[in-house]
Amino acid sequence: MKYMFASDIHGSAYYCRKMLEAYEKEGAKRLVLLGDLLYHGPRNDLPREYAPKEVIAMLNAKKDEFYAVRGNCEAEVDQMVLQFPVMADYCILELEGRTFYATHGHIYNEGNLPSMKKGDILIHGHTHVLRADRTENCMILNPGSVSIPKEGNPPTYAVYEDGIFSIKDFDGNVIKEITL
């Protein structure tokens, strides 16, 4: 079973299209959106083709295929225009016998872990920096940012399948991979 993870679209119609094209190409069962879908936030420059209304239409067209969590840029008005739930602080997924705690990262992160068992997986966005690391108690995963990557990274998303977490660019190149 393949799942795709993406974060921080920030209203970019260009990168939302790229993300949805990658989702179709990957053939994933679900796309888990890790927040900051429509608004770019006051600390970020406008992303390429900033057009939240276009992003709304693209996302609503596939509303039954997403799990989503709230980012620090989501507001009640976003939930009024999106036809799938986006206001939860976290989502717990059980995939292939592994527990994934999916969140945006502005509340729960490596410095403020939620209640997790040893070996559980925390996956979040927010930093715009891709990551796939083991810590003493858990795995920390971050698919990077779809539209506004930081630290010299390209725009990225991630897939999880058969115990392997792969962070990819939109050309399908694997940037980082870890076996869970």
Range of helix content: 10-25%
Order of helices and strands: EHEHEHEEEEEEEE
Proportion of residues in β-strands = 25-35%
Number of strands: 11
* Main sheet: strands, sense, barrel: 6 strands, mixed
Q: Which strand order spans the largest sheet, edge to edge or round the barrel?
A: 3-2-1-9-10-11
Query: Are there runs of 5+ residues with pLDDT below 50, and where?
Result: none
How big is the Rg? 15 Å
Number of H- or I-type helical stretches: 3
Task: Give an overview in words.
- The chain has helices spanning 13-26, 52-60, 76-81, and strands at residues 3-6, 30-33, 66-68, 90-95, 98-103, 121-124, 131-134, 139-142, 156-161, 164-169, 174-179.
- It is of the alpha/beta class and 180 residues long.
- The strands form two sheets. Strands 3-2-1-9-10-11 form a six-stranded mixed β-sheet, covered by helices on one side. A five-stranded mixed β-sheet has the order 4-5-6-8-7, with no helix packed on it.
- The chain is globular and about 40 Å long.
- The model has no long low-confidence stretch (mean pLDDT 96).
What's the short story on this structure?
The chain is of the alpha/beta class and about 180 residues long. About 40% of the residues are buried.
List keywords for this structure.
180 residues; alpha/beta; six-stranded mixed sheet; five-stranded mixed sheet
